[in-house]
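Saturday, quiet lab. Running sequence design on the structure tokens for the scaffold JK sent over.
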């Protein structure tokens, strides 16, 4: 099974995507994580991406499209869940072309949404583990020991682009470039909308239902 999750920053794509991919034994291809790994490893693509990411802007399409194609090709047998790709209509078109070339289909496109107040609350309080990438929240899901990851003992940090001034810009980029994907996907087979304003467990139950019901 292949799935696309899209929606605004902070809506919970990463958290929900990780859970669903693990349960369905799909590869979780999170574009932001792939880019952050490239930055850490100092690859050419990572060097190109970093300034865009720190400013809350989209990394150029040719960079992300090439990176995701490599990963899709590696993981096509297992099935994949795309989180954070595509992020504009040009990327969606490139993805469709790529899938056709590889003889693949997308079974579900899920649009997750929540009011902007929830998104701001979630993003401003978010803490990420440097070692394993797991996410916490200062208020809603704090780690047992301050600054330390419960899962692996790694150091927790606030993402450079989770500062308030960058968040405002990311939300603007979302409204202008990513939200129009709704027009691209809403009439396609397998499209659904999910209210992601509730707690993690409730949103996950709803997401699973969408995927399972449609899957029969
Ligand atoms: P995320 O972890 O999904 O919030 O992504 C973090 C940052 O990575 C974004 O603000 C962009 O700078 C960059 N990014 C992630 N996905 C894409 C994409 N599909 N296209 C362009 N830039 C992206």
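Result came back. Writing it out in full:
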């Amino acid at each position: 099974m292949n799935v696309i999750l899209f929606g605004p920053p902070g809506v919970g794509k990463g958290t929900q995507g990780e859970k669903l991919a693990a349960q369905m034994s799909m590869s979780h291809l999170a574009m932001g994580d792939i880019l952050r790994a490239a930055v850490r490893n100092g690859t050419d693509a990572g060097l190109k991406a970093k300034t865009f990411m720190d400013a809350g802007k989209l990394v150029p399409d040719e960079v992300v499209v090439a990176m995701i194609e490599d990963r899709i090709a590696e993981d096509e047998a297992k099935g994949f869940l795309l989180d954070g790709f595509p992020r504009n209509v040009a990327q969606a078109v490139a993805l469709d072309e790529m899938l056709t070339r590889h003889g693949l289909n997308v079974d579900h496109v899920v649009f997750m949404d929540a009011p902007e107040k929830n998104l701001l609350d979630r993003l401003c309080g978010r803490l990420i583990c440097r070692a394993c990438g797991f996410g916490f929240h200062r208020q809603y899901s704090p780690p047992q020991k301050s600054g330390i990851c419960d899962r692996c003992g790694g150091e927790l940090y606030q993402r450079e682009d989770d500062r308030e001034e960058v968040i405002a810009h990311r939300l603007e980029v979302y409204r202008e470039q990513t939200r129009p994907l709704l027009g691209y996907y809403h009439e396609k087979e397998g499209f659904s909308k999910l209210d992601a304003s509730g707690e993690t467990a409730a949103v996950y139950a709803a997401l699973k239902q969408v995927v399972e019901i449609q899957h029969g």
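Notes for JK: The radius of gyration is 17 Å. The chain has a mean pLDDT of 94. Ask whether to fix the surface positions before the next round.
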